[in-house]
Amino acid sequence: MTTLSPAEPTRRDFLCVATAAAAAVGGAAATWPLISQMNPDASTIAAAAPIEVDLVPIAEGQIIQVFWRGKPVFVRHRTTSEIKAARAVDWRALPDPQSDAERVKDGHDQWLVVIGICTHLGCIPLGHQGQYDGWFCPCHGSVYDTSGRVRRGPAPANLYLPPYAFLSDSKIRIG
Questions:
Q1: What span, in angstroms and rounded, lies between the C-alpha atoms of 98 and 133?
Q2: What pLDDT does residue 62 have?
Q3: What are phi and psi of 143, to 5 degrees?
Q4: Which of 8, 20, 88, 147 counts the highest number of beta carbons within 10 A?
């Protein structure tokens, strides 16, 4: 009868090691998709990132719409007459008192950047509409002026201002 010393591997030892290795690889292969699906989607990550807007192609008097964090943002290149009209208003008598100078960046009075969502029920207002040539929400009748301030209607507040900064005279970063 032959006895094997414990230092020599047997066929049973090989089968145990091979089975354990196969189980570990199989367990990792099954767990990887479960953990991977918990990561945020690439579009979600991109939606939270700041965006840059080139102001050069925006003509005076024009409003463009861009999207930041899934929200429409209106960038308006105001004319001199629109700025004068917005500054001539007694802002203390408005439903949400705020001066025009508080709603624009110093030295860039011609650029107004607002989140394009009505503060009443979240509709998208139409530009160059309404009594004040600002924005008009056709759903419930809120009217905003060329500074994005609510002038009449059920909206309780002015159009919100997103965080933004001028990178140069012709480019802004929103977010």
A1: 18
A2: 96
A3: -125, 130
A4: 147
pLDDT digits (tens, 9 = 90+) for 88-141: 999 999 999 999 999 999 999 999 999 999 999 889 999 998 889 999 999 889
CB 160 within 8 A of CB 118: no
Residue 119 Cα distances to 99, 111, 124, 143, 161, angstroms: 18, 21, 10, 11, 12
Length of the chain as a residue count: 175
* Cβ atoms of 118 and 134 closer than 8 Å: no
Three-state secondary structure call for residue 52: strand
Q: What is the DSSP string of 56-84?
A: TT--TT-EEEEEETTEEEEEEE--HHHHH
Amino acid at 138: P
Dihedral over alpha carbons 44, 48, 52, 55 (to 10 degrees):
100
Specify the DSSP class assigned to residue 117: S
Q: Which residues are catalytic?
A: 140
- Spatial separation of the C-alpha atoms in residues 159 and 163, rounded to whole Å: 13
Q: Is 104 helix (H, G, I), strand (E, B) or coil?
A: coil
CA 62 to chain centre: 21
* β 171-174/164-168 pair status: antiparallel
Residue 75 one-letter amino acid? V
